[in-house]
Amino acid sequence: MKTTGLLVLPALASLVAAAPAPLVESNKLRRVIYRSELQARAKELDNIAKRNKGTRAWGTPGHWETLDWIEQQIPKEYYNVERQYFNISRTIHDEISITVDGVAATQVNGFTGGPNGTVSAPLVAIPNFGCDASDYPATVAGKIALVHRGNCNFGQKNARAGTAGAVGLVVWNNDPTSLTPTLGTPDLYNVTEFIVSAFLGQAEGAALVEKVGTGSLPATVKALFHYSVESTANIIATTKGGNQNSIITSGAHTDSVPAGPGINDNGSGTIAQIEVAKALTKFSVNNAIRFCWWAAEEDGLLGSEHYTSTIPEAEAAKIVMNLNFDMLASPNYLYSIYDGDGSTFASEYASVGSGLIEQTFIDFFKADGKSSVPTEFDGRSDYDGFLQVGIPAGGVFMGAEGIKTEEEQKLFGGTAGKPYDACYHAACDDENNLDYGAFVTGAKSMADALAKYGRSIEGFPFPRPAAKLKPRRLAEEPMVPNRAKGKHGKHGGCSQTQEA
Ligand SMILES: *[C@@H]1O[C@H](CO)[C@@H](O)[C@H](O)[C@H]1NC(C)=O
Ligand SMILES: *[C@@H]1O[C@H](CO)[C@@H](O)[C@H](O)[C@H]1NC(C)=O
Ligand SMILES: *[C@@H]1O[C@H](CO)[C@@H](O)[C@H](O)[C@H]1NC(C)=O
Ligand SMILES: *[C@@H]1O[C@H](CO)[C@@H](O)[C@H](O)[C@H]1NC(C)=O
Questions:
Q1: Distance of alpha carbon 41 from alpha carbon 328, whole angstroms
Q2: Is the pLDDT of residue 14 over 80?
Q3: Is 297 among the catalytic positions?
Q4: How crowded is residue 24: how many other Cβ atoms within 10 Å of its Cβ?
Q5: 95-227 belongs to which CATH class?
Q6: What mean pLDDT is predicted for residues 147-163?
Q7: Is 229 in the pocket of ligand 4 (CB under 6 A)?
Q8: Burial 253-272 (b: 16+ CB within 10 A, else e)
Q9: Which residue's CA is the nearest one to ligand 3's atom 4?
Q10: Domain boundaries in the chain?
Q11: Rounded CA gap, 237 and 76, in Å?
Q12: Is the pLDDT score of 376 beyond 50?
């Protein structure tokens, strides 16, 4: 028997190898997504963060190790795998100071953006929030304006103060927590340049307003910085099979914030893509599937924006749609789906294609006996760059630091009045932060959409009418961090710091 078996086995093996893989089907693909595997990957990713000072932020060893770890797991016989390097120009503050009447303040932060320099002039306190031209008296000309945080973006305060003739700006905080403020770009506020500015803590700011009163005090504001150009990379894996002229992209980001391991945000999307990519190898596809692991999402969607702003027009024309998966395992989750048709949240990005993707996810949750709700389709995640070049997008998001409502508790369980993810952007976003039941559902929603569109894009608006893409960049040009582009909206909240 044994001998016979040994003789038969190689023949059987070659028969099995020769048999073409069956065309992917949602239920079959979903059946080979395992909770235990998702859990094992979360532990591995958490261990990467743990042995790298608790973070996987881009540019750190923890992020490079994350990229190696992802690449090791992608089956190379099934996918063409590419590492797309790009540069990011970081602002490094060298000296930021505010000195008033000879006293140097202690709670001072530098803005990202704005001119590099030093100004010395009388400091005057501006009533209101300094958001409107009418807030500034004519006497502010040649002076440093002191304004309160609130009511409008920092860039707007800076632009209005500058337009009124102020030579410098101090913004003081309206709450005791520290933050890294960003000005954005001057053209957003109809000026060509910002004025030198610095950010002051709440207590010192309040004391200063008192001390200055309606008069003025001699002051110096220093904002000295340099740029540091650093490299990072996206990982792009495309199925060898399937029509290479009709590609479905799926994206998740690989970096965490510096403050934490980022296992839900967005380790969960990264892990789900690894597991779905592995499971897909048991099947064949009609349309190519391209998994993208984006870098530097946390600094303003830089990896995905790099990809979409440098992709040649002919290559962009081959991408049917982009699916986005970020935070797929929030502990106090809700199942929210980007409102691609703009039926709940009016959106300039709404389109027929994005509406069809939304419906695909709605149908998945419904068939699985689960509720789902729409969430703003506002371009504040890695799908933004795709929308900018006319590619429809959609995806699932399980909530960040926003607060669960009573109504959402009825639909999804969990705890109303508490954040969807209390560990959002924090050190406790580790393997124990995840809801693994929700995680399995999230990964299966990814498998379902990829199986459906990997089989057929019938009825989907594709090919699209030829479009001239803008904005285009040179791939060698470094990206500039812009935190204001982070996750935002009803279920997200403001991690960005451009908004006062
Ligand atoms: C910039 O100017 C345009 C056109 O005058 C105006 O519509 C817009 O509100 C201005 N933006 C800001 C931030 O002032
Ligand atoms: C800012 O000014 C300092 C001192 O003048 C200089 O060393 C530094 O290179 C400048 N930074 C930039 C980005 O120009
Ligand atoms: C994680 O993914 C979600 C869903 O796409 C996204 O909204 C969020 O911005 C991502 N996290 C961060 C920190 O950007
Ligand atoms: C990144 O910058 C370095 C140094 O300026 C340069 O040598 C390298 O080619 C750049 N990389 C890319 C991908 O543009």
A1: 14
A2: no
A3: yes
A4: 24
A5: alpha beta
A6: 95
A7: yes
A8: bbbbbbebbbbbbbbbbbbb
A9: 326
A10: 26-78+240-485, 95-227
A11: 9
A12: yes
Under the banding of pLDDT at 50, 70 and 90, the label for residue 254 is confident
Q: Which residues contact 405 (CB under 8 A, 6 or more apart)?
A: 416
Residues 6 or more apart in contact with residue 290 via CB below 8 angstroms? 236, 237, 238, 239, 247, 248, 249, 250, 319
Two structure tokens written together for 410: 């009825």
Q: Which residue type does 466 have?
A: A
- Rounded to the nearest 5 degrees, what angle is found at the Cα of 324, between the Cα atoms of 266 and 369? 95
State the burial class of residue 344 (Cβ atoms within 10 Å of its Cβ: 0-12, 13-18, 19+).
Answer: middle
Q: Rg of the chain's alpha carbons, rounded to an integer?
A: 25
Contact 117, 221 (CB under 8 A): no
3-state secondary structure of 127: coil
Considering only CA atoms, which residue is closest to atom 4 of ligand 2? 224
Q: How far apart are CA 251 and CA 24, in angstroms?
A: 20
pLDDT in tens, 429-482: 778 888 899 999 999 999 999 999 999 999 999 999 887 777 688 888 888 876
CATH class of 26-78+240-485: alpha beta
Nearest CA to ligand 1 atom 11: 189
Overall average pLDDT of the 356-362 stretch: 98
Q: Nearest-CA neighbor of 478 among 187, 164, 51, 85?
A: 85
Bridge partners of residue 150, in order along the sequence:
none
Residue-by-residue DSSP string for 249-304: EEEEE----TTS--IIIIIHHHHHHHHHHHHHTTSB-SEEEEEEEES-GGGTSHHH
Instruction: Report the nearest atom of ligand 1 relative to the CA of 190.
Output: 1
Among the bound ligands, the one closest to the CA of 88: 4
Cβ–Cβ < 8 Å for 359, 318: no
Q: Which of 277, 269, 236, 319 is nearest to 78 (CA)?
A: 277
**In the predicted structure, residue 237 carries a pLDDT above the cut 70:** yes
CB 305 within 8 A of CB 384: yes
Residue from 225, 228, 480 whose mutation best tests the ligand 2 pocket (most atoms within 8 A of CB): 225
Q: Residue 417 corresponds to which tokens in the numbers above? A: 């009045």
Ligand nearest to the CA of 186: 1
Give the sign of the dihedral formed by CA 183, CA 184, CA 186, CA 190.
negative
Distance CA(375)–CA(328), nearest Å, equals 14
Q: List the catalytic residue out of 25, 65, 204, 297.
A: 297
